[in-house]
Amino acid sequence: MADTRTARRATNAGPGRLLIAVYILFAIAATSRAALQIATKFDEAPVAYLLSAVAALIYIVAAVGLARAGHTGRRVALACCSVELVGVVGVGVLSLVDPELFPDETVWSGFGSGYGYIPLVLPVLGLLWLWRTRTAADA
């Protein structure tokens, strides 16, 4: 019984696997985009391109945290999802209020509109999954 309960609470089991896969997909997409932009046209919009690189790093670390599952992995994933949510909302607001701040799009511009708003939904799903799989020791 304890093994079943532990398995149900693991962040890397069940729907958590899909969440990890989406984080990995976004890590690849954001890393590729940022690397290309930084390598070819960094001087055009350095802040935007560096923000995309930061988003990529957060996606990578969040995926690792969710995949590791244990106490440390959960804390890492919680921190990443929280920073990601604040980042996508903050950059989303700033990109709408003052578009000149970001002469080119970032992963988080317009609340992730260039990626179908998944960057806005992903940290919310991550936080909900972490909450759903929490144990008494995590509280």
From TrEMBL:
Keywords linked to the UniProt accession: Membrane, Transmembrane, Transmembrane helix
Transmembrane segments: 50-69, 76-94, 114-131
Annotated source species: Micromonospora humida
UniProt protein name: Integral membrane protein
Keyword presence, Transmembrane helix: yes
